[in-house]
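Figure 3 (text version): structure tokens given as input.
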């Protein structure tokens, strides 16, 4: 059996607060006011009504075995509207800067003011049990408030249209800077009727498919710049156009222009390339990729030697390498073909470099011994004029070193001739 809703027997007629024609205090002044307000702020404030009413109903009936939130909802709703209307008027006076320079209200934004008044009203409806117990701090209370608010929404207890009508009246009371409502006044109904179609606060619904947001015409560009349902070109410059709400997911998943690592990243190619240009990169950087693979095979060989090896592979086996795309297959193939080319010969340039370094080492040793002999001869001349010159012989230690270096150079020349 379906559980009966607590709203079944409640009157569904909301408190009507349709603004009447406002008369100017000055006789003969404009008597027709434009009622249009910023649709977005009106909707936002109207959304705060149900949670506020739910809080008041729950706290008012906590611990009461004879009443439930639903049984008092209609009465408390009426009290809430009357309270907000009265306080919105007096709140303006309380918000004025006093003579002593103290300002009572910190924020002058309409939403903050009305949200404060809603909380203030809910506080006045707490019963004794709510005030003296820990109920106000419990998670169970928050859950009950949320559940009751959703239940009122589902049952249409207080429609959004009627809440917005009330908000429009409240907004005119608290919007001190006239930022969210039209303050135009006219002498006749015809003048007002002519103004409405051009008023910057006239309401419109977003035209983007899937979006049902309502806002004032003056906010159209601002909404359009952030609307999650707006169709926009891909941020990564691919050919797709898609909703802003799915752009991030597109860019990091299926976008062909998504940047990815080169397939040969693990062997040394650190290029980041668009996903759709991988094949182009493979072709244009094929020489480099072969070089990276050979560097892994011949770790001691110089880059210059390996570049020549790459040329040898391409000259002889270009057709066998051209169609291989994945790293593993290409690595296996290069190893196989590299072995067929025979052992890698060290370039003569490298041998000359080694010989040059060795010859330099020999020159340093010989220069060192020459300096020692010169210093020793000079010392002999300074000590006494009659001293006999001593023989200028190289010390045995340095002599051995020089001979060893000469032998090393001889071996290098012999290897080079072979």
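Below: residues designed for each position.
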């Amino acid at each position: 059996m379906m559980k009966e809703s607590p709203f079944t027997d409640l009157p569904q007629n909301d408190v009507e607060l349709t603004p009447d024609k406002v008369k100017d205090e000055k006789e003969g002044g404009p008597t027709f006011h434009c009622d249009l307000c910023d649709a977005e702020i009106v909707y936002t404030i109207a959304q705060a009504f149900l949670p506020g009413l739910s809080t008041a109903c729950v706290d008012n009936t906590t611990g009461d075995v004879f009443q439930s939130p639903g049984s008092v909802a209609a009465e408390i709703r009426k009290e809430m509207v009357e309270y907000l209307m009265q306080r919105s008027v007096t709140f303006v006076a309380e918000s004025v800067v006093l003579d002593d320079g103290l300002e009572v209200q910190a924020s002058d934004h309409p939403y903050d003011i009305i949200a404060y008044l809603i909380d203030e009203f809910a506080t006045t409806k707490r019963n004794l049990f709510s005030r003296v117990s820990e109920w106000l701090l419990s998670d169970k209370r928050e859950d009950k408030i949320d559940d009751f608010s959703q239940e009122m929404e589902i049952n249409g207890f207080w429609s959004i249209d009627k809440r917005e009508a009330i908000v429009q009246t409240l907004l005119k009371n608290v919007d001190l800077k006239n930022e969210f409502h039209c303050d135009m006044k006219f002498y006749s109904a015809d003048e007002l009727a002519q103004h409405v179609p051009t008023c910057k606060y006239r309401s419109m619904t977003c035209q983007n498919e899937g979006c049902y947001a309502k806002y004032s015409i003056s906010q159209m560009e601002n909404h359009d710049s952030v609307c999650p349902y707006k169709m926009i070109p891909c941020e990564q410059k691919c050919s797709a156009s898609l909703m802003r709400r799915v752009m991030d997911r597109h860019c990091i998943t299926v976008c062909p222009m998504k940047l990815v690592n080169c397939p040969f990243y693990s062997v040394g190619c650190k290029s980041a390339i668009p996903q759709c240009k991988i094949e182009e990169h493979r072709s244009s950087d094929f020489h480099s990729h072969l070089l990276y693979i050979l560097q892994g095979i011949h770790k001691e060989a110089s880059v210059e030697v390996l570049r020549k090896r790459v040329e040898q592979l391409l000259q002889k086996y270009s057709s066998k390498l051209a169609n291989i795309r994945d790293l593993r297959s290409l690595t296996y193939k290069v190893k196989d073909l590299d072995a067929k080319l025979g052992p890698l010969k060290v370039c003569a340039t490298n041998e000359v470099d080694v010989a040059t370094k060795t010859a330099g080492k020999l020159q340093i040793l010989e220069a060192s011994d020459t300096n020692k002999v010169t210093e020793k001869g000079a010392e002999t001349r300074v000590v006494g004029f009659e001293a006999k010159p001593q023989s200028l012989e190289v010390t045995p230690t340095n002599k051995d070193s020089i001979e060893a270096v000469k032998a090393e150079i001889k071996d290098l020349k012999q290897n080079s001739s072979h």
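Residues 8-13, 15-25, 97-105, 371-395 have pLDDT under 50 and may be disordered.
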